[in-house]
Amino acid sequence: MLSENTKAPDFELEGSDGKKHNLSEFKGKYLVLYFYPKDNTPGCTIEAKKFNEKKDEIEKLGATVVGVSKDDLKSHDKFKSKLDLKFLLLSDPDSEMIKKYGAYGKKMMGFGTIRSTYIIGKDGVILKAYPKVKPLVHTDEVIEYLKGLKN
Description:
Helices cover about 30% and strands about 30% of the residues. By secondary structure, the chain is an alpha+beta fold. The chain has a single domain, classed as Glutaredoxin.
């Protein structure tokens, strides 16, 4: 897990919108960058639904939500469609970005993506890190943190 007050690593990944995305395009906004293990699994579905439900509130606080997993774009398309997700999902099939952000490690069933979130500031610096997220309450934690920031 990366520590707070450090520069967020840059990335270039394909998104569920068919475009390539990098960190610099989010400059000037807060970025809620969340890492999750797998599309269409119970915990990941709960977390995605919660972020989707609160997307407008998060955006009013000046932030953009982006989800990242190692699933391919085809899987992301099905996941977005099934849940009617209104935010961007990035595909990191080699877990390169996931590892750069320290969201990869030992889990119950071997190694893989650890459910975690970073709130990145308008200047690209990590403001808040959430290791080992609980899907049911995490979105509310993020909103409370964002409310405390001075826009």
